[in-house]
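Exercise: predict the fold of this chain.
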Amino acid sequence: MQSAPTANTSLKSLFPFVVFLVLFLGTGIALTLQGVEFAFYQLPASIAIIPAIFVALYIGKEPLEEKIGQFIRGAGHENIVTMCIIYLLAGAFASVAKATGSVDASVQLGLALFPDFLLLPGLFIVAAFIATAMGTSMGTIAAIAPIALGFVESADVSPALIAGVIISGAIFGDNLSIISDTTIAATRSQGAQMKDKFKTNFKFAVPAAIICLVMFTVLGDSITYQSTTDIQFVGLIPYLLILALALMGVNVFVVLTVGIISAAIIGAITQSYGLFTWISDINKGFANMQDIFILSLFIGGLSALVKHQGGLSALTHKIENITRRVSKGNDKKAAGIGIGMLAFFTNFFTANNTVSIIVTGDTAKELATDAQLSPAQSASLLDIYACISQGLIPYGAQALLLGTTMGISPVDVVMYSFYPMVLFVVVLLMFKRATK
């Protein structure tokens, strides 16, 4: 059991994240109420987080040089750098695919395949399928967001709703995939077998997905678009390659790089797409990702400071104590909620579901042992609640990437992120029966 004699003091180190959220969300909400257009763009998140970083540096007790070193090491964490490279490759692929006609070809095929009222559930299934195969919600969003933007331009549909469908499908697949880093982290931390965790997760994920499919079918009933039979099938090749490589389990970096190169080759064959135009489009794609690239680095550094100052340990200790008091007689449901809240709130302050699982894994295992929950059940809860939180925070990588690609606020994205919301309710209602 964790020891945290300075828990109340350490909780103060979470204050920088409060500063960030108040500045970013508070400014956006206030400007929205005043009728300002693009309210959440007036104070970019990459700027709103800077005062929070200064607060974290001030709170820390170590010498300034050491605190700056902690920040830099957090910004350079493997998971943060991985996300940033995905941002760049996703931006480049979206730019090149758009310029060479691959996006248009994919959109026209999608519009031809799906009836009007099935466009949204169809997009959810595609996103869920790719995310399950790739094991990454970020890679999935990077691959299909450009196509989704084409749907917005071709059909009478809200970009926020389309973004919500994509993030819903991506979170479903990431949470359920056996090759996802969140799944691997959850099973290892709890000592669970992958197949057992999958079976437990399946009981919650599939009912939530079915409910979402019904919701998206109803919401998509009024969508109208003009499909065409004049589809440039050669433009589909980059996306077919991406899908094939994803199903083969190829690294997401390789998948996106192949997409960028293949789209350029198709463009060179069909429309004299030149080398320097290709380079220019790649550069434009990189530039489009500048804000979320910077924000991700800053969030990584800020999270490292907060963790080092004891904020995350104090948070998990606090939730553990509350759970133990509430779970009279080691009630499984109370312990399950405690494990879920550990992952949910830790992810809220780190914006990284894999990191949140690693941070809370030991405490979750203790709670599960006391309440006689199986390793598969605790691993499933960790993974589920971390992914729920990740799908609902506007400063998470998924919402930021979708917002940038679709040209909308990340807050709009999470407002339509229905799958994490539904999954949250499903787990609360079904957990006790599922653990009998």
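Check your answer against the key: The first helix runs from residue 7 to 11.
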